[in-house]
Predict the structure.
Amino acid sequence: MSDEMLVVYGGFWIRFLAFLIDSTAATIAIAPLVTTLAGEMLMTNYNLGDPEEVSQMLSDLSVRLALDVLFMGTIFVLFWVFKSATPGKMLFKLTIVDAKMFGKVSVGQHVVRYFAYFVSTIPLFLGFLWIAFDANEQGWHDKLAGTVVIKGPPREQ
């Protein structure tokens, strides 16, 4: 029996639920830090009829988005590196592993996987929906990073 036959992949819906848990928790955790660094942003503070204020609003939004991406990425990658999963995945006993050996994933693979989330997101989230139709239940971010999500721990190497 091959290694692949013994593997139970994490499917679309359980991974989606885990991602909702993780992204909600991370957003709540980083919101005060982002607000402290970028200031509070209220739409009522901008006159949307004034092109200069609209430009300032877009600039402020860009700073907030960059901080969100940086902090969210840091949280996710650190969990992936040290626990092979985020808290949502751990709740469902899911683990991110190397797609070939089903063992631990390198730091580089984790970083690629995080940035590949954006590739999965851009075309109407098709890269995430791909999980539901792929034989190994890999999203595009998994394919680009050489990872899969399985139930259970990584294999010893």
